[in-house]
Amino acid sequence: MPADKNTFKAALKSGLPQIGLWLNMGEALPAELAGHAGFDWLVIDGEHGPNDLRSITAQLRALGTSPSEVVVRPPVGEPWIIKQLLDIGVRTLLVPMVDSAEQAEKLVRAVRYPPAGLRGMGAAVARASRFNAIPDYVDTADDEICLLVQAETTAAINDIERIAAVDGVDGIFIGPADLSADMGFRGRFEAAEVQEVIEKAIGRIIAAGKPAGILTFSESLNRRYLDLGATFVAVGADVTELSAALRALAARYGRGQGDARSSGY
Active-site residue 48, yes or no? Predict the structure, then answer.
């Protein structure tokens, strides 16, 4: 019995638009709720959310019956944490701050078993193999791991074609908030100068043969990026959506602080 098929990875390859949501609460119940809301993919955020290995495991269990693909963003792209995440059953990773093709190549090796990579041979005791209930997991897992890398700096944008050319990188995700800050437009990713870079980067990624992704909290921008050919687009976060809904409810009764949503992440 082989490793389970990663339908999200297959959808990216076929060019089918995938709409996603960020999970920043670090709890299983809201993750489970989001898992049945209709999104194609959900990001458990270990970079800016209060998550550790145990909270991520709990959310993976809660999302076990969800049709949404679970994507996990580690705080850093280090092999040791990637190894742990893969062993608990993560099969789609979104790695932040990948500035070069050389970084991307190291990440590809981190998600593959030897001899093609350096992932540790511990599947027999890992949740990923259902604790050895998938006997040929190590022979089939590499094909179902989906590696998404984040381009969030001018250095990454300048190296985008080389990053896209790395075999084993399944998609490139533009981080508009960090990119705009790196360009000198902190908190203003909607600036024309930033948008020009983002739109050109989406085109360059697609021209290089890889799916392009992005996250904003602006519906008009998200639809614009989809029109430009972006394949995996995240359109919000659980924290901001809940906060906005609760503030709006309080405001109807003369309480609260209004809409807490921002334009980017």
Answer: yes
CATH code at position 190: 3.20.20.60
Please check whether residue 57 lies inside any domain of the structure.
Answer: yes
Total domains present in the chain:
1
Residue 245's CB is within 10 A of a number of other CB atoms, namely 12
**Which residues are CB-contacts of 115 (< 8 A; sequence separation ≥ 6)?**
none
Q: Are strands 92-95 and 69-73 parallel, antiparallel or unpaired?
A: parallel
Confirm whether pTM is higher than 0.90. yes
**Mode of pairing for the β-strands spanning 171-174 and 212-215:** parallel
Of 13, 48, 109, 247, catalytic: 48
pLDDT digits (tens, 9 = 90+) for 55-92: 999 999 999 999 999 999 999 999 999 999 999 999 99
CB atoms within 10 A of CB 73: 23
CA 152 to chain centroid = 13
Give the contacts of 89 (CB within 8 A, at least 6 positions apart): 57, 60, 126, 127, 128
pLDDT digits 0-9 by tens, 169-197 = 999 999 999 999 999 999 999 999 999 99
